[in-house]
Amino acid sequence: MISHVTRFINLNDRDFVIHPKPQDDELLSSWLVRVALANDAAATSFTNMHFREYARNIIWQRDLDIWCPQDLMKRLSEKSHLSKEQILDMTLKSYEGKLQEHINGRTRTRFVQPLGNYCHIKRNGGLRFCPKCLKEDIVPYFRKTWRLSFYTACIKHDCFLHSRCPTCGSPLVIYKHYNERDFTFCYKCGTDLKTAPAHTINKLSYGLKAVECLLQILSEGYGIKFGKKVASIDFFHFLKQINKMIYLWRKTDGVFEHEILGDVIKFNTTTKNKCYEDFITIEEQYLLYSGSCFLIQSDSNFKDFIQNNHILQCHIYKDFR
């Protein structure tokens, strides 16, 4: 039985009794929930008892995977006997210097889907999942790459990710539990996320190649921009600008001709919010990155795009920041 008792139990100076090993590419929040459940405690109760300076569920009111401060990382390291490097590697801060120069949680992080924190509620579908991955896992867990904006499809199973419960539409809140079940069940309605329908993608779709390419650039720290090797930060910075041209400027002529799903997925450019990626469907986001990745790889592709959409050279770097 999962214990929710926190009153009068102070474990601030105690190590974790049981501390499961982090899985490959696991998110810090996913691992910490698994640690709590391994110790027969709800995640909120567990962290309130072990981290009195972060009591009243403060840890879970933030986006832990971005926000996690240095002192909390140090405490997690000491209590779990993992190195600080292992703790850091589970956070999205580990992408600092490759995805964005600074990742601190105080400002929006490019290419990371926000959770939309509001007290204990996650309003956005910022945490995604592949039902096939969760089903195949010996130890189910949530991946760091699933938080990336461009990681819209599982390149292992060639299917779209889900961002919400397929039954009730609620975003994932993995530290909350439905009838004491683990986080592979929707906290609100109890649906088994492992049984969510997997919408298969044609293996010939360029979008799958784009996801794999962008992951490789993030991993290696450099990419090919218009045929030239550049640092990954510069690559992703300009990729964001191309996304803006395509979506916000509605420059879509010839953008999806290379993509076999270009005529299958409806690409709606009605959202004018600068945070448009928070509102478009995961299929639209998949198509967007298929287009922008195709354009940035080749100088000739980009020149055709500029010409087809009548974009002036002086406008290419408009509002570029």
UniProtKB/TrEMBL annotation:
InterPro entries xrefs: TniQ
Domain TniQ as annotated: residue spans: 18-161
Protein name, as recorded: TniQ family protein
Lineage: Bacteria, Pseudomonadati, Campylobacterota, Epsilonproteobacteria, Campylobacterales
